[in-house]
Design goal:
The structure is a single chain. This protein has 755 residues and is of the alpha+beta class. The protein has 12 helices and 46 strands. Helix 2 packs parallel to helix 4 and helix 11 packs antiparallel against helix 12. The two termini are 33 Å apart.
Length: 755
């Protein structure tokens, strides 16, 4: 989670409000752990928040035998026989997914009998809450990676909670667990309640919010990552109704259109990703733990789009043109409620796109027919959409890697059965192109004119361990090369790490071939390196080990600056600094000191920094140092009160790590009444953030592993004689055939993938 992206949030609790009451133990016993884990894995989720108490205080696990008599008495009849949380952990851990717990420390909505038993509001309720989380944390240890604590700013009772003390109990079993204190509601100005009005900067990793407002601009969080990859400020829970049809009520009722069209929603999600924010999707109904298929379908689709930077095209988008298809067929389980549908032979759906991969999604059903797929005039395969039962949002075609450029796909009804199209995903072409001359080459490289190459020039070498570098600021790139009978191998590096190996051998010579496509990167500075491998690492069939650099395509993006508030946990304050809640300040709090030589420092990666402060009649003078050098002394005196005042800016730093210090000078303007130095926030200029997932050889569907899906899809592609990317020539014999599928079986990265 500290590296950004999507997490998933699941409320699951006692359901006495539902029309049919199901005993707690029965609900826990019947909880579908494996299906849930499969759904999370399909969506590329890395963390699940699961509710362990919420408005009921029924625990989804047995009270541990080591628990105190107080805990055993308190949760008698309120705990489960099955240790559901351990079962969920085991299923998630096998898939590389982390588990977090949601906990509500306020029993103010419980029945009176339980409030009396726990001692709420005037008794020992708080100590009982502390003991509950300590018991839970000790029981699960490092199985719990994170805590989401609700209602930290709900009422006067919240102020009795000491955030620092609470954090100690939460981390009792895992000192490295991340913590989110939920400030709650749509009021972005609420702050963590400070029982001691003290510094909480080293207590919580971030605060959380539960957001339902429909104004996307209002909802964009301040969440951004600092240079150490730690999230600042908010983790936002986004209700399922943002993406799927929302019911009239939590229980029953009819379903309506999605609140937002998918392109709008995805644009918002990309904005979050671009600043490193974390969003947590509530994928299940609030009281009913059953996960609706409509919710899962939409959520998985969003997760896949976020992971791979795909463009979503709805069935009624202008990019799609139809001959005979109807786009008015309502289906509540479709992504945007409607399907494009044909039941006439010869009907077509056509899309022209600029990119390097395309997927078609639709519905299979008992009346489903056969639909042919052609790309750029060549028939690729015929799809059968017939099935014994209805299934929505099925990916029925995936082109696999294509040459980046303009393509036209035609879907045609070829037998008069029902052909459907729900939506299209395609991977867009990268916007910028640089020829090989723009690389920075080390020794041993040569170049020559070649008309078949981009820019009519090619760079090449057959010397071992020779490097060529290309730098850009962006979020993705693709490398194009010449391949042939004498092609060698090279490694691809990103910012000092090897992320892939390319074999440029081919029985026939080809030019301007896409040989490497990067994962989606968090926008920032990227240093790409092509480094030749030893000649002994070349394909055994190759007659030499020549490596060619033709050109690179990339998306150029400039990362936004980010804000570090005065309460951020990575600002180092000495003991003479304090905090003051101030409505006009950023996040409603400032730090301050008037003790001479008191220091506050923050280390960041970037090229510039600003100090936003407060000026008034009590302002003193403050030294500002960068990397130990005094840059300026700023005067915070003003005859009038000025909030959010920019008092310092330095924007010409070399790209890299820097430390800014604010030191109380101990002097003041002759008109000032005091010596105060105040920090509202730091604003950091664009900086490099690089979070990557190394591509996995043989990973056809680009989900980060090699499993049954990859083997099955490659086998089908071979059987249908599709054009297959040369990277799937796994036995290096110059062709992709069933022998490569057998090699792929031996390359499984998942224990459960062998067939």
């Amino acid at each position: 989670m500290s590296k950004g992206g999507i997490t998933t949030f699941l409320h699951f609790n006692e359901n006495s409000d539902l029309p049919v009451f199901i005993p707690w133990n029965e609900r826990i016993q019947n909880f579908p752990v494996e299906p849930l884990a499969d759904m999370l894995e399909a969506g590329g989720v890395k963390l699940l928040f699961f509710t362990i108490t919420h408005h009921d205080y029924n625990l989804p696990f047995p009270v541990p035998s080591t628990a105190s008599a107080n805990m055993k008495n308190l949760y008698a009849g309120r705990s489960a026989d099955r240790d559901l949380m351990n079962d969920i952990y085991e299923a998630l851990n096998a898939r590389g997914i982390k588990l977090g717990f949601y906990f509500n420390p306020l029993p103010d909505t419980e029945e009176q009998a339980f409030q009396d038993q726990i001692g709420f509001p005037d008794g020992d309720w708080l100590q009982n809450m502390y003991e509950t989380v300590e018991m839970t944390s000790d029981h699960y240890g490092d199985k719990v990676s994170a805590w989401w604590i609700d209602n930290m700013a709900k009422s006067s009772h919240s102020r009795k909670i000491d955030p620092s003390e609470f954090a100690g109990y939460l981390r009792s079993g895992n000192a490295d667990a991340l913590i989110a204190y939920n400030v709650g509601g749509q009021n972005g100005n609420r702050q963590i309640p400070f029982a001691n009005d003290g510094d909480v900067s080293h207590i919580t990793n971030f605060t959380a919010g539960h957001l339902k407002n429909k104004d996307l601009n209002y909802l964009k969080p301040a969440s951004k990552f600092d240079s150490n990859g730690l999230l600042n400020y908010r983790l936002d829970q986004m209700q399922r109704g943002w993406a799927v049809q929302e019911p009239d009520s939590e229980v029953g009722g009819t379903w309506h259109n999605a609140r937002y069209e998918m392109p709008v929603l995805l644009e918002y999600m990309y904005d979050l990703r671009s600043v490193g924010a974390v969003s947590s999707w509530n994928v299940a109904p609030y009281l009913d733990g059953d996960i609706d298929e409509r919710v899962v379908n939409q959520w998985v689709m969003i997760g896949q789009a976020m992971k791979h930077g795909k463009v979503f095209v709805s069935e009624d988008d202008d990019m799609l043109t139809y001959a005979g298809f109807s786009t008015t067929q309502e289906d509540l389980f479709a992504s945007d409620r409607y399907l494009a549908e044909s039941s006439q032979y010869g009907d077509t759906a056509t899309i022209t796109y600029t990119g390097s991969r395309i997927e078609l999604w639709g519905k299979t059903q008992s009346t489903g027919g056969n639909c042919s797929i052609s790309i750029d005039g060549s028939t690729i395969e015929t799809i059968n959409q017939n099935s014994s039962s209805d299934e929505n949002q099925v990916k029925f075609f995936d082109s696999g890697p294509q040459q980046s450029g303009d393509h036209t796909l035609v879907m045609k009804n070829v037998d008069g059965g029902v052909c459907t199209l729900d939506h299209v995903f395609y991977t867009p072409e990268l916007a910028n192109k640089a020829d090989g001359a723009e690389f920075d080459y080390g020794s041993g490289w040569s170049n020559q004119a070649r008309n078949e190459s981009y820019g009519n020039t090619i760079h090449y070498t057959n010397i071992d361990k020779r490097s060529a570098d290309f730098e850009f600021t962006g979020d993705r790139f693709q490398i194009f090369s010449q391949i042939g009978p004498d092609g060698g191998a090279f490694d691809v590096w990103i910012n000092g790490d090897v992320v892939g190996t390319v074999d440029t051998y081919s029985p026939t010579k080809k030019h301007q071939v896409l040989v490497y496509s990067s994962p989606i990167l968090v926008p920032g500075f990227q240093d790409v390196r092509v480094r030749t491998k030893s000649s002994s690492d070349a394909n055994p069939a190759a007659s030499n080990s020549w490596v060619h650099v033709d050109y690179i395509q990339y998306n150029e993006t400039v990362p936004e600056g980010y804000t570090i508030d005065s309460i951020h946990h990575d600002i180092n304050y000495d003991s003479n600094w304090a905090f003051h809640e101030k409505d006009e300040a950023h996040l409603n709090v400032v730090s301050y000191s008037k003790v001479s030589n008191s220091q506050a420092s923050y280390t960041f990666n970037g090229t510039g920094v600003k100090i936003i402060s407060r000026k008034n009649t009590g302002g003193g003078k403050c030294q500002v140092k960068i990397d130990g050098n005094l840059i300026d002394t700023v005067d915070l005196y003003s005859s009038t009160w000025i909030d959010k005042a920019e008092v310092f800016s330095k924007q010409d730093l070399t790209l890299g790590s820097h430390t800014i210090e604010v030191v109380v000078d101990g002097t003041k303007n002759s008109n000032s009444t005091n010596y105060y130095c105040v920090i509202d926030r730091f604003e950091i200029a664009p900086y490099p953030i690089n979070i990557i997932a190394a591509p996995v050889l043989g990973d056809w569907d680009e989900d980060g592993d090699v499993d049954n899906n990859d083997i099955r899809t490659l086998t089908i592609a071979i059987q249908k004689r599709q054009v297959i990317d040369s990277s799937f020539d796994l036995n290096n014999d110059g062709v992709v055939n069933i022998l490569d599928a057998r090699v792929l079986m031996s390359m499984c990265t998942r224990d459960r993938c062998a067939i």
